[in-house]
Design goal:
By secondary structure, this protein is of the alpha+beta class. It has helices spanning about 15-25, 35-40, 45-60, 75-85, 85-100, 145-150, 155-165, 180-190, 235-260; strands at about 30, 60-65, 70, 105-110, 115-120, 135-140, 195, 205-210, 220-225. The chain folds into 2 domains: about 15-70, Arc Repressor Mutant, subunit A (Orthogonal Bundle); about 85-260, GAF domain (Beta-Lactamase), CATH 3.30.450.40.
Length: about 260
Amino acid sequence: MTTAPQPGDTYVQSFARGLQVIRSFNADAPEQTLSEVAAQTGLTRAGARRILLTLQTLGYVTSDERYFRLTPKILDLGFAYLSSMPMWDLAEPLMDQLVEKVHESCSTAVLDDLEIVYVLRVHTHKIMSTNLSVGSRLPAFWTSLGRVLLAALPEDDLRERLARLPRRQFTQYTATDDATLIERLREARDQGWCLLNQELEEGLSSIAAPIRDRSGNTIAALNISGHSSRTSAEQLKNALLPQLLQTSQAISRLMVARRR
C-alpha cells in the first residue's frame, strides 16, 4: 500500500496544499466559504485563507467576500497538459470521422492511478446522467477505457491498485470481486479490446481499444459508448468494433510518425 509523501527536500508541502484547495472545488461544491474549504481539505482556517488569497491574487480564484469560486484561468493548468501533448490534435479528426460513421459518442482517456481522465471527447448524444467532458474522471476498473489501460499494467502493479480499490455496486451488473475483475482485465489484454456492459450505469455499454506508442506500450485508450435503447452490447461488438479498432490503430500510427 502506498504511503502519502512527506515534507522534505523533494516535497513542497505548501504547494501540495495549494493543489488540495483547488481540487476541493468541484461540481458538488462550485463555491465554498473559507470554513468549507478548510473542512474539505483538513487545513486550518488560517492556512486555507492564505492559500485562497494567494490564488485570488494570481487570478485563479474569485470571491464576493463570503464565497470563493474558481475562475476560468484555472483551465490554463489543465490545458497545459493538452498543449504539451500535440499528438491529441492528430487524434481528433479521426475521432470526428468515427462518430460520423457510427453515430455514437467517442472518447480518448489516459490512466491516473485508479481513475481515467478524459483528454478528448466527440459527442453525438447525451448517454450518461453525468455530462462528460475533457478533464472528467471515472473509476478505471468500471469503464471500458480504464480496463484497456489497466490491462496493460504489470501484474504486481495491477494487484497493488486492486488492494487500494474502493468497491461500489454501481449497477446489478457491476463486478466487484478481485477474481472477476482480474479475469476481465486479462480478457481485455488477450483480445486487444474491452466491452463493458452496464457495469457503471444501467443501459450504458461501451467498447474500447488501446492507443499505442512505437514500442507497443498502451499510452491511451479510445472508446465508443452507446445506450441500449439505440445500440446493444452485441451491436457494439459485431458492428462497431471493427471501425473502432481501425481508428485506434490509425491514431497509433500517427503517434509513431509524429514522434520520429
